[in-house]
Amino acid sequence: MSTIVVRVKQKQIAQLIDKGKRLDGRGLNDYREIKIEQGIIEKAEGSARVLLGKTEVMAGVKIETGEPFPDTPNEGVLTVNAELVPLASPTFEPGPPDENSIELARVVDRGIRESKAIDTEKLCIEPGKKVFVVFVDVYVLNHDGNLIDASALAALAALLNTKMTNYEIEDGEVKFKPGYTELPVRKHPIAVTFAKINDKLVVDPWLDEEQIMDARITITVDDDGNICAVQKGGSGYFTPKQIFDAAQIAREKADELRKKLGW
Amino acid sequence: MSQKTEKLIDKKGLRLDGRKPDELRPIKIEVGILSNADGSAYIEQGKNKILAAVYGPKELHPKHMALPDRMVLRCRYHMAPFSVQERKSPAPSRREIELSKVIREAIEPAIFVEYYPRTAIDVFVEVLQADGSTRCASITAASLALADAGIPMRDLVVACSAGKVDDTIVLDLMDTEDKVGSADVPVAFMPNLGVVTLLQMDGILTQEEFENAINLAIEGCKKIYTLQKEALRAKYISVKEVEE
Lengths: 263, 244
Hints:
- By secondary structure, chain A is of the alpha+beta class.
- Chain A has one domain (about 25-260): 2-Layer Sandwich (Ribosomal Protein S5, domain 2).
- Chain A has helices at about 5-20, 100-115, 145-160, 205-210, 240-260, and strands at about 35-40, 45-50, 55-65, 75-85, 125, 130-140, 165-170, 175-180, 190-195, 200-205, 215-220, 225-235.
- In chain A, helix 2 crosses helix 3 (about 145-160).
- The two termini of chain A are about 35 Å apart.
- By secondary structure, chain B is an alpha+beta fold.
- Chain B has a single domain, classed as 2-Layer Sandwich (Ribosomal Protein S5, domain 2), CATH 3.30.230.70.
- A 5-stranded mixed β-sheet of chain B has the order 1-2-3-5-4.
- The interface of A and B includes residues 74, 99, 105, 236 and 243 of A.
């Protein structure tokens, strides 16, 4: 729901976008400044903090042993969870995950899973019985719009930073030994989110833009320029042409970000 | 996704159930079948069997959730425990919570929400049997239930999936194609306005395949749209005949 300040800004934001400009000085297809820090939580196997403008998201990776899914007995398991922590925004309430945090987690999960970013076959300990389970927990610390892209970046940065303790099998039991191996990450899926305002699409909407947008679309792109996940959100609509254009721009932006981040 | 042994398209170019790549499954739609609901619809699409019911516009509880300038649309997508091979726990899963959200956001653009301030409309979708693309069939049924409830709408919302199996872009994925295939693209569409109200994708597609899949799904939507309109007419014309 729009706040009063946003309602005042609303007209200005929309009028500027109509002229190809944005209230914070960015072009329609520009991201805010991105800062990534990795390895900030020593007790997690992997961790990262992402600043996307004023949006701040942390992600931590924990690895445990568990059972594989019956339909993929030779593969490790990936689980993504997202918490909209109450200290991040006056609109976040404590309690069990609501539909927004579930959607956020599932969109991030889909990008990593469908691009086959993690080589899950290397996480198998004993086929059908024991595999490594990779838990990615996304923690939103400050909400200033575009949580999906920031969370996807944080999750990937944390996975790239993940070190697994070496192990050997002794009588069917996993025994850990000294030394670390890096988690086998082979793809770098990047989520690019657009907001539709006044029938125009803008990349990386900040909070004020999100509050007045008609609809949102996220397109996740892998290293080869393939589309691996899409999610439309919000109670508006897109024309097919807007979707195709968005996919094209998303592929360019993802490439640009990957180069910038050295991934 | 790992069971690559199964062939999804045979040498003649036909799919597991004998369909051509651009062919829909048999569809049966009925409108107004639940007497307690303000509007309802039932759809069978292949082995999918889905019920949708609408209650409202009605007073919203808790009252502080009501909006002064529009109605609140609520939606619950739920799968029956016996709807799938292995019993599904009746508690709402994360998947069902996400689908409830995207289905709501797919039908909301069609409704004149500003006509009913301070009220709520509940849309309940129960999947009695699931066989792939249930979210699409749910949207097709839900928008008919809304129309049956007499809610003013800009258009019916109709949905259909497309996807990629064995390097071919195909229409209306069934369960196995969804699980083993390489991409799934559900699309909801308002044919009169020519706009997309739901779009999701998982799998791997090039830009060209992605565009082809969406275009194919939209063609499928247009075919189902005709069936939707027929189903609405069937109910209301037969009512008129009884009166005469």
